[in-house]
Amino acid sequence: MRVQIGTLIVATSLVQFANGFFTTFLSLRLAVDNFGPILTGLVLSSYFAGFTLAALRCGPMIARIGHIRAYAASAGLVVAATAAMPLLVGPWPWLLLRAAVGVGCAGLFITTESWLNAKALPGERGRVFSIYMVGTFLALAAGQLLIGQIAIGTAGPFNAIVALFAVALVMVSTTRAEAPRVVVEDTLPYGVLTRAAPAAVIGCMISGMISSAFYALLPAWMQGTGISRDVIALFMLVAVLGGFAFQIPVGRLSDRFDRRIVLAALGIGFAAAAVMLVQVRTLAAALPVAGLLGGFMSTLYPVCVAHALDRMPADRVVAVSGRMILVSGIGSAVGPLAGTAIMTRFDIDGLLYFMAAAAVLLALAAAGRSWMRAAPPRQDRPFDILTPQATPLAHDPAGTDAAQGVEAARSAPA
């Protein structure tokens, strides 16, 4: 059992290593190929659109063909689409192929996380989840280090990404097949979550929008201004590590205070960091700001999820998690499109001010709701780190360990 879980965690770390590198690399490659602002935004957004749409259908696919076959099909789609990109260079083929990569990655993450959630023992689930998320953050950070070592205009980076996904596929496909039990989940009508936790829904949308715009557009702008790829890699690495460093402190704060107040503080903090980044002119000053920006940005989503789960009954945990992934995905698809349009007219300062304004809007919405409605009572619960990809793993869909599993995880902050 532990060997199987360990294999899944290592394989997912390889996938995240490739994915973190792919996102930054593609931003740089699109700038080199000069697709134009509109088509560049569409290509960058297509991954998130594919991921979001696929996340809605992964459950039925897993139930129909099983976890290992679903993983193999998803990885095969990513490998095929990535391998085709250097053969079909152009905005429209890349838009479709990048969307296919998003579809495949959604299948990989959801299959892996539901598999881990089902197979991990109740007493070990929190430990497994923590190891999984540490591996995810470190792999995303390590992926940035490759940026300075590659030739942007060649097929080499695509081949490296294909190899990493293929290795992950081999690892999971050769593990012992023990299909987890398929569970029927409660549905959540549209509008219920928005009425119960509007600040959480707004926050997920804005979180997805600003994070996707940041990771998709900032590297390309830096390259366009003549900044070396080593510096770009370092800047992005610091942003990812800043996000990792903020998780536990912010999670503890959100357990002690009204999560909406914490969310408002994060929004103001992000806005201040974005405005500071406009003002700095040296790398030594920019790197600490990048860490702050990444820290505030990466903690918006998990606090939103925790607040939404506080407002909903325990039998809606998985449905709420899926709905928050959907909302975040919609925001992520909008982010590069809106950001590219703004950068066309106002350059990078306009993008940073736009993200700052969105964060201030979130802060006002969260603070306003805290004044209008008291915070719900909460029990003490363990801390978990959440990302849009990892939310399903934080909860027990089977509902068989209510006292130890679901109820403890239903509002876990990150």
Secondary structure layout plus pairing:
Elements: H1 2-33, H2 37-55, H3 58-65, H4 67-84, H5 91-119, H6 125-145, H7 156-173, H8 192-196, H9 198-224, H10 229-256, H11 259-279, H12 283-311, H13 317-372, H14 402-409
Query: Which runs of at least 5 residues are low in confidence (pLDDT < 50)?
Result: 379-383, 393-414
Structure class: mainly alpha
Mean pLDDT: 81
Run of helices and strands: HHHHHHHHHHHHHH
Number of strands: 0
Descriptive report:
The protein is an all-alpha fold and 414 residues long. The chain has one domain: Up-down Bundle (Growth Hormone, Chain: A), CATH 1.20.1250. Helix content is 77%, strand content 0%. It has helices at 2-33, 37-55, 58-65, 67-84, 91-119, 125-145, 156-173, 192-196, 198-224, 229-256, 259-279, 283-311, 317-372, 402-409. α2 packs parallel to α5 and α9 packs across α13. The longest helix is centred in the C-terminal third of the chain and has 56 residues, at 317-372. It starts with a helix and ends in a 5-residue tail after the last helix. 57% of the residues are buried.
Task: Give descriptors for this structure.
414 residues; mainly alpha; 14 helices
Gist?
The chain has 414 residues and is an all-alpha fold. It has helices at residues 2-33, 37-55, 58-65, 67-84, 91-119, 125-145, 156-173, 192-196, 198-224, 229-256, 259-279, 283-311, 317-372, 402-409.
